[in-house]
Every structure is written in C-alpha cells, then in structure tokens.
Amino acid sequence: MNNKQARASILISGMHCSSCASLVERELQKEPGIIDAKVNFATEKATINFDAEKTNTEKLLSIIKGAGYTGVPADSVDQSAQTHKHAEMTKNQFNKFLFSLALSLPLLYFMLMDFFMFLPGSQFLLPYMGIISLILATPVQFYIGADFYRGALSAFKMRTFNMDSLIAIGTSVAYFYSVINLYLYYLKNNSLIGIDGMKIPDLYFETAALLITFVVLGKLLESKAKGKTSEAIKKLIGLQPRTARVERNKVTLDIPIDEVVKDDIVIVRPGEKIPVDGVIISGSSAVDESMITGESMPVEKREADHVTGGTVNMLGSFKFKATRIGAETTLSQIIKFVEEAQGSKAQIQALADKISSWFVPAVLIIAVVTFVVWYFFLGATLSYALLALTSVIVIACPCALGLATPTAILVGTGVGAEQGILIKGGEPLEKAGSIDTIVLDKTGTITKGKPEVTDVISVGKVKEKEILQLASSLEKQSEHPLAEAIFSHAQKENIKILPVTSFKAHPGLGIEGAIKKDHLFFGNRKLISRDLGLEIKDYDVTLNRLEEQGKTSMILATKNSILGIIALADTVKDTAKEAVDMLKRRKIEVWMITGDNQRTAKAIAVQVGISNVLADVLPQDKALQITKLQKEGKVVAMVGDGINDAPALATSNLGISMGSGTDVAIETGEIVIIKNDLRDVARALDLSRATVRKIKQNMFFALIYNVLGIPIAARAFAFLGLVLKPELAGLAMTLSSVSVVSNSLLLNRFKPKK
Fold first, then answer.
1. Do 406 and 43 meet the contact criterion of CB atoms below 8 Å apart?
2. Are the C-beta atoms of 158 and 227 separated by less than 8 Å?
3. Distance CA 725, CA 707 (A)
4. How close are the terminal C-alpha atoms of the chain, in Å?
5. pLDDT tens across 3-33, in order?
6. Taking a C-beta distance cutoff of 8 angstroms, is the pair 676, 658 a contact?
C-alpha cells in the first residue's frame, strides 16, 4: 500500500439482501479514487481501498447514504456497543414480528373459515371479513412493511431492484387488488358487509399480511443466526482486559489498557489476564494460552520468557516489561487477521454476485410472463393470475445466494481461530481444497528450530576451546539461527568474545571476518572447498559421520588451512512424524526443503518418514524449487517460518506459516499456525475443505431452491394439484435463507480427522 493509498472499514446498516450489498459496492466503485470496494452482506461491512488524495471517508459515507443505507466507520464503534446495537435491532425485529403476528393470525383464521365452515364464529364473521381484514392488514402493510417500501424506493432511485422491491411489489399487488375489489363491491352494493351472510369475494388481505409476517420472521431468525456466526470474533475481543496494573516511579497504578506504554513495568497476579505483550523481568508462573493457541496445557513462564496479552496467569505473580501494546499486540493482530478474513470473498462468491445482479429483474420478468400466460392464454381469472404473479415474486430471493459463501467463511475462519489456525479468508480456503503437494521447510517446521552445539573438533594445533571462541566471535555478528546456538554455547562455557572486523555474511554458505591478525572463514563445505578453494577430503570421514547423524557441520578455516569443525543438531519435533503421516493419509505428497547437504537432510527426513528431499537449497532458491514442482503439474503448499521463507511462501499456491508459540508473523502466510504444531497443517486443510463443502452445499441449495421454487410458484404444476399460495411462497423464501445460515453454523461441530 503506497503513501497515498488508504483503507476504510465501514459498518453498513439497512441492507436486507445481497442485492443491497451489490448496489452499495457498485455505487462506491463509481467514485473517482476508489481502488477497490468490497461489501459483505453477512458481516454488514464494507472494506474500501482508495487514493487519499482523490477521496476520503466522509465522501464514502455520503455515497452509502445516497444509496439509502447508513454507514459508520468500523473503528469508531466499540465491539460491545456493536453487539448491544445488534441485540437492540434483533429485539426490535422481534417486537415487529409479534405485532405483525397479532394482526395476521385473525386473518389466517378468516382464511381457514373459507375451508372449514364449522369453525367457531364462521357464520357471524363471514359477512364482516372484508372490512375487518382491511383494518388488520393496513398497519402490517404500511407500518411493518415500511422498511421494504423504503428499501425499494432507494433501489428505484438507483435504477435497480432488490429483495425489498420484490416484497414491496408482491404484497402491494395482493393488498391493493383487495382494496380495489372491496371498493368495487361497495360501489355495487353500497355496503362493506357481505350480503346473505356470505363473504365478499376476491379479497387477499391475509396474503399480504402473512407474507410480510413470514418475511419479518425470516429476517429475525437470520439476524439471530448471523449473530452466532461472529461468536469467534466476539470471544477474541472479549479476551482483552480493560485495565492494567503498572509500576511507575515505585508507585503501583491501575490504569486503562489504552494508557499502557512500551517499557512500562506491568504487574500480574494469580488468576488475572495479562493485558499486553511483554517479557518477564521477575517472578515465574504457569500461563493458560489456550484462548490464543488452542493448546490446553498451561505453559511454564520464567524470567526472559515472552507473555501474550489476553492469556491468563494461573499460579504465581510476576512483573514484565511491555514490548507490544495497542494494535501491535499478538491478540490485536489475530483479531485484525480474523476480521479481514471474515470480510473477504471467495472466488465462488463472484458467481453468486453475478447471479444476484440480474436475479431480481429476471424474476419480475418471469412474474409478468406468468400473469400474461395464465390470464390471456389459459383463461384464468384475474385473481388467479395475480396470485400466481405474486407467488413468483415473493418465492424468489437472492438472499440465500448472498449468504451461502460469507456465512460459511465467517464460521469456518472463526472455528479455525479458536483452534489456533488463522485462515486469511475465502481464497485460501478454496486453494486448500486443491492442494496435492506440501513442501515443509526443515528448520523450525520439522525441527524445533533451536539447534544446539553437539561437537567441537580441532583438526590442527588450535585447541577446541579456541575453535569455539573464534567461531562464536564471528557468529555474534550474524542473525542466523545456527549463530545464536553457537554464541549461546560459548556463553555457557564462559568463553570471552573477541572483536571482529571486516565481517561479511554469505547467505546459505557462511560468514567471514578478521580477528586480530587472522582473516577467518566459518561455513559449510561449499564455502570452504568451492569458494575458498581448500581441500577437505581428509575430513570427509568425520563430516560424513556427523551428517549421517542428522547434524549440521560448520568448518572454521583461514585462507590457507582448516582449523576445526563444529557440529550442531536440531531436534525433530515430537509431533513431526505423526503430522507427516496425517498428510500422507490425506493423499498429499510431502517434500522437505533445506539448505543442509543431502546426507544431513536425508537423516532428518528418514526420522519423520519423508522420502522426497530437496537439499543444498539456498534461501533465495527455495522459490525456484517450488516453481519446478508447479511446472510438473503439482498444486503446492509451502510451510515455513514466514520470515526466511517469504519468497517461497509467496510463490507457492498456498503459503502456510508456522508461528513460534504466540509470537506470530501474521502477515507472512495465507494460513498461520499459531501454536507451532505441524499436525495443525493437516487440520487446517480439513477445516478448509469442510468450509468449502459447506459453501458448495449452500450454493447448490440456494440455486436448486429457486430453480424448483419459481416454476411451482408460477403454477406450472397446477395440473398435478400443486398450487402454492403467496403466503406459503413467502414462508419458503424466508426459510431458504435461514437454512443456509443454519447449515453454515454446523461447521461449529467440526472435528479434524486423525
């Protein structure tokens, strides 16, 4: 994102279906300076990237208002306030439903009296049904139905149609047709009471009222279900404590968490939540990190260990120095990650959006054709043809299509977050379903990523202690994981570090530098034999023996001679073999990639059951190896630490980065495994595939519902006695949306395979 580019997240209220979201999206994209705009109906949020020199958030809010909806910047709304607002809206919908139901039930009773004359009050009420129905139906039509008229009017102003248009047109046809018939009856008979104890014919007030009642019920159920889909993000936000106890100038203060600054000394007592990220400076404890990593066992913490905001201190008290606060904390990054993921769109959503864009106009055309065919060609009565038209209009709804993808993504990414698996939205979910090859980086992915010095070997006159001193002095300048291991080992041995000049790093090979009068080289075989030109055949037996044990050998040399060898071993993770077996059971081809030589790499690969090994690969060449596999027709996921493997992660079809405990480099992968458990890679694939299956189920149901529902509503099967009343068509329409959301919620029961 360049300096001129900005991003705005805007919460939008008043959208009733995916057509509404498409309308807002189209209007935003017309604004000069908009780079891209995505409106998610399920989350009721717009994510807009724009050129800050050409437009601003105020203009965007104005566009949304002009389209007939209300927008508010997401960062200006507290989550608890948003939850409260959603609860209030749901309560308001419930009250509207009760009011509508109270007026519609008598109308339903009147309708049943037509069929069952023995019902109590039938003989007395029948003549008065017309006027009573008008009185009862009018508040439902124009008070409860006002939202649909407003939405339809806004859409009309934008020269488009939406679900509100369908409901408004469908109910208006039934209501005003009934009003006209009642008026004509009055003109003919000078009375609004049925003659000879009979009801006034051709009145369909109950159709309009019941239709609105069922739609309001559907919206109520949909609202409640959509509220449940965002439970995961609410839980994450609920982890954030509101206050922190800090020590400033030897005084202990309880302050709002927003006032904590970097390097503050924070005090945490047993049972309290840790407010921000930091490093323990005194004390020790066990910390429950399950809410962040999904790991059920408490983690022991002592001085110099990292702690994460939102986790719970179990036993002891300790003090820590705040290192990351506000939006920088791990929890804040995870929340941001999940929010962006849940607001994203899968590629399959493009199909739903395309269908939704022409769906409503197509339905209106079908409805008119239905009326024309029945009335003009098949000789049906006007009321019969109008009821068929109304049924077509109200049974068809793009809502189920609009909810099919986003609700599944909402639930799927939420379930992942609860289990320590962060999935960056719809696209990675879809990609994961087609992966047939996984490339695992060795260091930090298959192994623990914490190598230790196992052997220090002198091959000349220089003693082992001096070999370690020279090597650790050189490595103090380096940032490589092996460097840290050698330097740490020297510290344990109380070895004095010497000053180094002319230091130079050779990525993937080693380092060089001057200590006192000697210019030294420390690295792998390639650096010493190929680049430096020294003969190493005399040491092959020693080097081969170490490498066959899975150890990494580093050679220390001057320009003229070899001084010694230091070997390091990185322990294989306890769960690595099980993880590889899990992937194989899923018919996935597993590869290991490493900068180690073939012999060392093979030793590690054998331990975990991997037969495909890419060894001697420099960091900058890992991406090339991924490309080679892709050219062979493989769909490749790369699993790495997200730091050294960034090019390979980007080149692969799906980048999966392993977090180190709770210290996650979230930006690097499309899927992030927080708790550094390699088995979660297979679990992430399972969850992704389960979510994509739900999306496809939802899409199929939404499409088949309309494909079958519209002909039935048009009374194409009337010759079989299959005739659908408009109010039942409306009920079917509302249930279609609710069933899609409910199907997505079943993902909450997801359990990965072994």
1. yes
2. no
3. 18
4. 41
5. 578 889 898 988 877 778 888 988 999 999 9
6. yes
What's the token pair of residue 699?
């899409």
pLDDT in tens, 631-652: 999 999 999 875 567 788 889 9
Q: How far apart are CA 200 and CA 105, in angstroms?
A: 19
**pLDDT at position 275:** 95
Alpha carbon of 721 to those of 223, 716, 717, 724, 745: distances in Å?
35, 10, 7, 10, 36
Amino acid identity for residue 345 in this structure: K
The single residue of 277, 353, 441, 645 carrying the catalytic annotation is 441
Contact 185, 203 (CB under 8 A): no
Q: Which residues, 6+ apart, have CB-to-CB distance to 324 below 8 Å?
A: 262, 276, 277, 278, 309, 330
Give the Cα separation of 155 and 321 in Å (integer): 55
616 is catalytic: no
Please state whether the predicted TM-score (pTM) of the whole model is above 0.70.
yes
740: Cβ–Cβ under 8 A, 6 or more apart, which residues? 400, 403, 404, 407, 698, 701, 702
| β pairing state of 518-523 and 552-557 | antiparallel
SS3 content of the chain, % helix, strand, coil (to 5): 55, 20, 25
Residue 401 identity (one-letter amino acid) = L
Percent of the chain with pLDDT over 70: 91
Residue partners of 707: CB distance under 8 A and separation at least 6? none
Contact 563, 616 (CB under 8 A): no
Rounded distance between C-alpha atoms, residue 144 and residue 132, angstroms: 18
Q: Higher model confidence: residue 118 or residue 541?
A: 541
> Does the CA dihedral 117-123-126-132 come out positive or negative?
negative
Cα gap 192→119, rounded to integer Å: 23
Q: What is the dihedral of CA 255, 258, 263, 268, to 10 degrees?
A: 50
Specify the range with the lowest mean pLDDT, choosing from 65-69, 75-79, 269-273, 692-696. 75-79
Token readout for 411 is 């639930």
Residue 584 to residue 576: CA distance in whole angstroms: 12
Residue type, 686: D
Query: Over the Cα atoms of the chain, what is R_g?
Result: 34
Helices (H), 420-480: 426-432, 464-475
Beta carbons within 8 Å of 362's beta carbon, 6+ residues apart: none
DSSP 327: G
b/e sequence 216-248, b meaning 16+ C-beta within 10 Å: bbbbbbbbebbebbbbbbeebbebbbebbbbee
